TrEMBL record:
<dbReference type="InterPro" id="IPR017872">
    <property type="entry name" value="Pyrmidine_PPase_CS"/>
</dbReference>
<keyword id="KW-0808">Transferase</keyword>
<dbReference type="InterPro" id="IPR017459">
    <property type="entry name" value="Glycosyl_Trfase_fam3_N_dom"/>
</dbReference>
<dbReference type="GO" id="GO:0004850">
    <property type="term" value="F:uridine phosphorylase activity"/>
</dbReference>
<dbReference type="Pfam" id="PF00591">
    <property type="entry name" value="Glycos_transf_3"/>
</dbReference>
<dbReference type="GO" id="GO:0004645">
    <property type="term" value="F:1,4-alpha-oligoglucan phosphorylase activity"/>
</dbReference>
<comment type="subunit">
    <text>Homodimer.</text>
</comment>
<dbReference type="InterPro" id="IPR018090">
    <property type="entry name" value="Pyrmidine_PPas_bac/euk"/>
</dbReference>
<dbReference type="InterPro" id="IPR035902">
    <property type="entry name" value="Nuc_phospho_transferase"/>
</dbReference>
<dbReference type="InterPro" id="IPR036320">
    <property type="entry name" value="Glycosyl_Trfase_fam3_N_dom_sf"/>
</dbReference>
<dbReference type="Pfam" id="PF07831">
    <property type="entry name" value="PYNP_C"/>
</dbReference>
<dbReference type="GO" id="GO:0005829">
    <property type="term" value="C:cytosol"/>
</dbReference>
<dbReference type="GO" id="GO:0006213">
    <property type="term" value="P:pyrimidine nucleoside metabolic process"/>
</dbReference>
<dbReference type="InterPro" id="IPR000053">
    <property type="entry name" value="Thymidine/pyrmidine_PPase"/>
</dbReference>
<comment type="similarity">
    <text>Belongs to the thymidine/pyrimidine-nucleoside phosphorylase family.</text>
</comment>
<dbReference type="Pfam" id="PF02885">
    <property type="entry name" value="Glycos_trans_3N"/>
</dbReference>
<keyword id="KW-0328">Glycosyltransferase</keyword>
Length: 434
């Protein structure tokens, strides 16, 4: 095969064969295809699109470009949950214990945060002693023993995706549906679970800003998962304001613990119960999504999910005492309040602006090499639809660098928009795709 011919074929709107796609993915991963040729093909794909069959074969080629995890040593139907990324999205830390407490084995690999969305691995590392890198044998043993383990994604999972995404990022070819879907699903399919639940965010603080684009992506990923014989369900959820009240690593873990204690924000609690219910259903522990929801709610109210979180933390070297003593988390040394200067209602909180402000407080990374401040972040005291009066505290910025905290406060204040009339409430759950 000839890479020049493949580029020309896609440039002219042709359909790539499975063999051509495999040749490209393997050649680029191994280094025999240079960046300049791969860049040309990515731009041709971006402009001319891929059909469903091409997208499936691209996903499959990237899946098999590295290790494909064998979870057959773990008993039961393993269910994975993936979020496309959002501001304040700490649902894994709530959903995984809820589902595991209901008998669903959760063997999950998660990533680190980059930009304005936080990564689950970073959040877990704010727990003293918690290990996100453990041997495969220990990972599987823990799932069989307590039903839950979450570790960092290894470099050997879908290495083609890492190389291709890095190139997309610098060639203005990120926003193509086939490339996005294959990037997400190649990693999920290589991670070895039997069923996948996808939380596709849409809105200001999401990668997919429009509902239509989020649905298109969700449908495409469900089709890819189903074609690979994985039970796959997508749920389209709102990200026009931050999820919950906490944005930042240790702040979000504390909020997740509060949620499992039954005193979390309403949006986090409801979304977590819905996601856990779908996972319980996908794991064949419930006959319907509603029954799964009811089982998750019982696990929350009984304290079973909170106990499961404690087992999970202890199993990976963390100190379960953090569940009762929040002072064990990394501590901030600087705070700054954002105060309201008018009366009315909170009409909007720009999620992306809050995410970037949190990143600039020290809670996030601009590049993979950046270090993060696990104590830093933003706690929102007001959400969309809340009444406000002059002098009310809208949010508090936390961190250990006064200059960063001040800059973050200035940015976060601009995220708030007010109105005299109470705004219409956005639906948290917009669509479920089976």
């Amino acid at each position: 095969m000839n890479m020049n011919d493949i580029i020309g074929k896609k440039r002219d709107g042709g359909k790539l064969s499975p063999e051509e796609i495999e040749y490209v993915v393997n050649g680029y991963t191994e280094g025999s295809i240079p960046d300049y040729q791969m860049s040309a093909l990515l731009m041709a794909i971006y402009l001319k699109q891929m059909d469903k069959e091409e997208t499936f074969h691209l996903t499959r080629a990237m899946k098999y470009s590295g290790d494909v995890i064998d979870l057959s040593q773990i008993e039961g139907i393993k269910v994975d949950k993936h979020s496309t990324g959002g501001v304040g999205d700490k649902t894994t830390l709530v959903v995984a214990p809820l589902a595991a407490a209901c008998g669903v084995p959760i063997a999950k690999m998660s990533g680190r945060g980059l930009g304005f969305t936080g990564g689950t691995v970073d959040k877990m590392e704010s727990i003293p002693g918690f290990q996100t890198s453990i041997p495969a044998e220990s990972f599987m043993e823990q799932v069989n023993r307590i039903g839950l383990s979450v570790i960092g994604q290894t470099a050997h999972i879908a290495p083609a995706d890492k190389k291709i995404y890095a190139l997309r990022d610098v060639t203005a070819t990120v926003g193509n549906m086939s490339l996005i879907a294959s990037s997400i699903m190649s990693k999920k399919l290589a991670s070895g679970s039997d069923a996948i639940v996808l939380d596709v965010k849409c809105g200001d603080g999401a990668f997919m800003e429009s509902f239509e684009d989020a649905c298109t992506l969700g449908e495409m990923m469900v089709e890819i998962g189903t074609a690979d014989r994985k039970k796959t369900i997508a749920i389209i959820t709102d990200m026009n304001q931050p999820l919950g009240q906490a944005v930042g690593n240790s702040l979000e873990v504390i909020e997740a613990i509060d949620t499992l204690k039954g005193r979390g924000p309403g949006d986090i609690t409801e979304l977590s119960l819905i996601l856990a219910g779908i996972m319980i259903y996908a794991g064949d522990k419930a006959e319907s999504r509603q029954q799964g929801y009811d089982m998750a709610k019982e696990a929350l109210e009984s304290g079973g999910a909170l106990n499961k979180l404690a087992e999970f933390i202890q199993g990976q070297g963390g100190d379960p005492a953090v569940i009762k003593d929040y002072s064990l988390f990394p501590q901030h040394t600087c705070t700054q309040e954002i105060v309201c200067h008018r009366s009315g209602y909170v009409y909007k909180i720009a999620a992306k602006s809050i995410g970037l402000a949190s990143q600039h407080s020290g809670a996030g990374r601009a590049t993979k090499e950046d270090s993060i401040d696990l104590s830093a972040g933003i706690y929102l005291h007001k959400k969309v639809g809340d009444t406000v009066a002059e002098g009310d505290v809208l949010a508090v910025i936390y961190g250990t660098d006064a200059e960063k905290v001040a800059r973050s406060a200035e940015e976060a204040e601009k995220a708030f928009v007010f109105s005299k009339e109470k705004p219409k409430k956005e639906e948290l759950i917009k669509k479920i795709i089976l």
